[in-house]
Amino acid sequence: MNMKRITILFVCLFGVLGSGYCQEKRLYNHYYLTMKAIKEGNLSDFENNVKHIKNIDSLCHTDTDHSYTLLGYACLYQNKRLIQRLIGMKANTECVYSDDMYCYDALYIAVDKGNCELVKLFLSLGANPNEAYNEDGLCPLAMSCNTNNFPVACLLLQYGAKANGLGNLGGDYITYPLIIAVDKNNINMVKVLLKYGARTKVRDKSGISPLFIARRHKNVEMIKLLERSR
User: Fold this and answer.
1) CATH classification of 128-230, choosing from 3.40.980.10, 1.25.40.20, 3.30.499.10, 1.10.10.10?
2) Could you give the dihedral angle defined by the CA atoms of residues 38, 40, 44 and 45, in that order, rounded to the nearest 10 degrees?
3) pLDDT of residue 204
4) Is there a common fold for 32-127 and 128-230?
5) Whole-prediction pTM value?
6) Whole-angstrom Cα distance, residue 67 to residue 56?
7) Domain regions of the chain by residue span
8) What CATH architecture applies to the domain 32-127?
9) 10-residue averages of pLDDT along the chain (230 residues)
């Protein structure tokens, strides 16, 4: 009799475990199919699968080092239609991507992709143009300077990005948008940063100034511009 009860107990236990595994597998499949639909821009498949996902803000690994929420994945593939759909579903825009060290907002991906339309969308929704992405002061404006994306930089400045960057945040390095722009020989970027109040007398932790970099590059126009703005 006892053996019979034990057998029934094991059957029930394995049934419950098996049921849980199947549910987890189905949920994984819905995540996979939803992300596949985002990548392919398939709205119908997206709608058919996303309705089964309880937490659309879960971070899902795409490889060993990178994780995205559904919104982050839509930003990665710059699918504005599905981005707006997910925003309508109240998706969190503040943590959409992780590299296992930091968590990044939707604006980060939009700036990284150089997509002005998405940058403007997230700024209009309240994204912080002065978000610090690491302890060295990496911020949206510094990213746009680093990629020479003048239109994105202008948008960020219009929405209140600090032309001087975020200052010393305690890291090993201080990120100055002006130093980046000068080093990139981007005269138009330098001009707009100066227009919004960037200081020419800043120095990084190595003591390097924008004027020093301009002279090293032998960029006469840049040297004159910086000297006039001192």
Assistant:
1) 1.25.40.20
2) -70
3) 87
4) yes
5) 0.86
6) 13
7) 32-127, 128-230
8) Alpha Horseshoe (1.25)
9) 44 43 56 95 96 94 92 98 98 95 97 98 98 97 98 99 95 95 98 98 92 97 94
Cβ–Cβ under 8 Å, residues 131 and 105 = yes
Q: What is the DSSP string of 23-39?
A: HHHHHHHHHHHHHHHHH
Q: What is the pLDDT of residue 21?
A: 39
At 12, the amino acid letter reads C
Q: What is the pLDDT of residue 5?
A: 45
